[in-house]
Amino acid sequence: MNVNAAVAAASAIAGLCTGVIAVLAFRWSEREQARPTRASMRPDDAVVLPPGVDTVLSVLSSSAVVLDETDAVVKASSAAYALGLVRGGHLAVDRMLQMARETRRDGEIRQIELDLPRRGASRGEGLAVSARVAPLGSRLVLLLVEDLTEARRIEAVRRDFVANVSHELKTPVGALSLLSEAVMDASDDPEAVIRFAGRMQHEATRLTSLVQEIIDLSRVQNDDPLDDAEPVEVDDLVAEAVDRCRHPANVKQITMATGGAPDLHIWGNRGQLAAALGNLVENAVNYSPVRTRVGIAGRRIAAPGGDLIEISVTDQGIGLSEKDRDRVFERFYRVDPARSRQTGGTGLGLSIVKHVAASHGGEVTVWSAEGQGSTFTLRLPEAGIARDRALAAAGAADFHDSGLDSGPDSDSADTDTDPDTDSLYETFPDHIPAPEVLP
C-alpha cells in the first residue's frame, strides 16, 4: 500500500515537472519568436530609411552608405562599391567605421580626409577622399564620401606649374639684373658694354619668348578653337613653319624637305595650327646636328570616323629615350636642359602642340630612337569632316560653301623656294611612305 502511494506520488511529481517544463518551453518559444532578429531588423529600404532619403541618395554625386545600429550596411550607392568602401555587406574602412560609431553614440557630425589604397593599382597610387558622417534618425548613420583624387591631381599640376613658371622667369630676370650692373661698372669700357648689352638682349628675347608661350598655352587651354574656325590649307601651314625656321636651319646647314599629298585642308584655328606645326619644326631643327635633314610632309589617311590629315615632322637628331618619350609633352620638361638654354627653349612648345591637337579633335604622337632621330606626327580631322561635326554640335541648319572643292587660289603666294637662291630647301615627291627616319 505504501509502495503504491509512493509510486503514485512520484508519478504526480513527474507529471507536474513535465507540465512545468512544457509551459516554460512554450513561453521561451513565444519570446524567441517575438524577439527581433537581424533579418527582421532589416526590412526593405523603403521601410527602414526615412521617406525621401532613398531618392536623395540616388541622385547624390558622392558615394553614400547607410549603416544600422549593428554597423551593417542598409543602403549603399554603386559608387561606394566601386571605390571599395563596402565589401560583404559591411563597411571596409576601419577609420570610417569608427567615425560612424562615435557619431551614433553622441550624435555629432564628423568629417575627415583620408588616403585609401586603390584596388588593382600599383604601389603609391591611391584615392584621396573626404568622408562626412551624420546621424540619420535615431538608429541609422549616413556616410558620404567624396573622391578628391582628381582635384588633388589638378591642384598638384597647378602648384607645379606656378613653381616652374616662377623658376623659369627668375633665371632671365636675374641675368638681366646682373648684366645691367655689369654694364654700369663697365661704363668706361665700350667693348665690355657691347658684350654685356648683347647678353641682355639675348636674355630679354628669352624672357619674351617664355611669356608669350605661357600666354599661348593659356589661350589654347581656355579658348574654343572652333569659335574662329576656317578651312586651313596644310601647304600654307608647312610653308609658314619652314619660313619660321629658315634662319637657324641655314646656320646649321640643315636641309628642309617638304612634300606629300596636295590640296589637304584642316578645319580649325589657323593661328593655333600654325603655332603647333611651327613648334614641331623648330624642335626638329634645334635638336638636329649640322648638315642633316628635316622633313615635313602631309597625307590623308582613312579612319573609322572619317579621313584624317596626318602631318609628320622627321629629323635626324639625338632621339629620345623611352623615359623621355613618356614625358616629352609635359610642361617645362626638357630632354636636354643645357641644349634648351642654348637654343632658348622654354619647355612649353610640345605641351602647346598637345593641347592644340586635342582641342581640334586630334592627337600628336612621337616615334623616336636614340641616336637615330624622331618623328612627331599630328593627326587631325579633315576639313569637311571636322566642319560637319562642329555644325552638328552647334545645331546649325545651313552652312555656306567654304570653297574647299575648288583648288587653292591662283594668286596665293608661292611657297616654293628658288633652288638658285637657297639650295638647302628641297621638295619631297607628291606621295611619300609612312613617316620614318630620313636616310
TrEMBL record:
It is found in: Cell membrane. The chain crosses the membrane at residues 6-26. Residues 411-423 have a biased composition (Acidic residues). It is an enzyme of class 2 (transferase). SUPFAM superfamilies: ATPase domain of HSP90 chaperone/DNA topoisomerase II/histidine kinase, Homodimeric domain of signal transducing histidine kinase. Residues 400-439 are annotated as: Disordered. Pfam families: HATPase_c, HisKA. It comes from the Bacteria. It is a multi-pass membrane protein. Residues 164-384 form the Histidine kinase domain. Keywords: ATP-binding, Cell membrane, Kinase, Membrane, Nucleotide-binding, Phosphoprotein, Transferase, Transmembrane, Transmembrane helix, Two-component regulatory system. CDD domains: HATPase, HisKA. SMART domains: HATPase_c, HisKA. One of its GO terms (molecular function) is ATP binding. It catalyses: ATP + protein L-histidine = ADP + protein N-phospho-L-histidine. Its EC number is 2.7.13.3. InterPro entries: BphY/WalK/GraS-like (IPR050351), HATPase_C_sf (IPR036890), HATPase_dom (IPR003594), His_kinase_dom (IPR005467), HisK_dim/P_dom (IPR003661), HisK_dim/P_sf (IPR036097), Sig_transdc_His_kin-like_C (IPR004358). One of its GO terms (cellular component) is plasma membrane. GO terms for biological process: cellular response to phosphate starvation. PROSITE patterns: HIS_KIN (PS50109). This is Sensor-like histidine kinase SenX3.
